[in-house]
Amino acid sequence: MEIEMERALDFMTEVAASLMSYGSPTTRTEIWVTRIGQKLGFEVDIAIIYTVIYITVRDKDGNFKSITKRVFSLPSDFEKFMRVDTLVKKFVDGKIQLAEAHLELKKIINDQSTYSIFLRLIAAALTCGGFEYILVGGTMSAIASMVLGAVVYAATNYVRLLNNRFFQQFTSGIMISIGSWFLIHLFKGSTLSGVVSGSIMLFVPGLLITNGFSEISQASVISGTIKESEAMALLIALVFGIFAGTVFVGGMNF
Amino acid sequence: MNIILNSIIAGVASGSFTILYNARFSDAIIAGGIGAIGWYVYSILIGYGMLTATLISAFTIGIIGRIVSRIRHMPSQPLIVGGIVVLVPGFMAFKAMNAFIVGKNTEGTTLMLNTFLTAAAIGTGLIVAVAITAIIFRIKIRR
User: Fold this and answer.
1) DSSP structure string for A111-174
2) Closest residue on chain A to B88 (Cα)
3) Do the interacting molecules here have an ipTM over 0.90?
4) What range does the domain containing B61 cover?
5) Using the beta-carbon criterion (under 8 Å), do B20 and A130 form an inter-chain contact?
6) Chain B residues within an 8 Å CB radius of A24
């Protein structure tokens, strides 16, 4: 029985950790893990506080086991999120057994399938240009944003000198301010605020702010508040980076 | 005409943003479509105030995202995240922080408050949409 409990807890922890790191909302992850436990005949208590997962399983005789798991990176991967979600659904519906499901989960985690760098850069460029056009306006500024957004995205995602998000935000800010100053001279008719506004959209944690609020209103108060705090810290790093960049180019006025 | 063009561009930006999160191409296209509809709703309602427009637009995105995800038997998160990204107050948050740093504290406070209210409007719109669709789906299952 103890081995069964250990296997179940192992699977539940891996499901929770992978769902959280692939971009699942906290509430959804907690519901899925609880259902897995119920399917295996256990009573489950789960609390996810952003990067920390606490799970306790209890059998009918009152024996229990607890685990604490820390998730270190939250990169968000919707393709893997959907695959894990489908796998859990299949398991809860009784279409596959625990061992098979666990094996399949490991396969998903180790899978490296992703879009090519070229396609990602095009997507980054279209995102930056599109945002600039709808939020500020101006075709030349949108084109300049596309170029700068793609360059900074490539630099921060593929040339990783230090695996630190705050440093990444700070350096992105520096590159954006210096790059936009150069590009307004290259793309006649573009404006500094336009180019900066488009290029920063990939790095501004607007989604984190919105998700944080959603979680607070869905009773995940601590997780939501932590997300809000992280968003503020990332934003400050980005803005300080932009200001540091202005030192090189002699000041900017937004 | 301008609203339609901007909505199409918003759709392209939403779809592209979803690709950066490694969503499947077909989901990115749907997320782009939802983003375009969201921006269209936002643009035609902006006359009633930014918060009202954001709230109703987020609600629309939430409803469409949930229904499409139900039809496609998939979680709604990738579609909704892609759709709402055009509404999130990222640039406003940046301007607020920028104002604080250059010492324009009053402007910064106003902008930061607007940022949080916009985020709250998006969150509320989405939660109401999720709750309403959950009730509708439950009624349908019982029948």
Assistant:
1) ------HHHHHHHHHHHHHHHHHHHT--HHHHHHHHHHHHHHHHHHHH--SS--HHHHHHHHHH
2) A206
3) no
4) 2-142
5) no
6) 75, 77
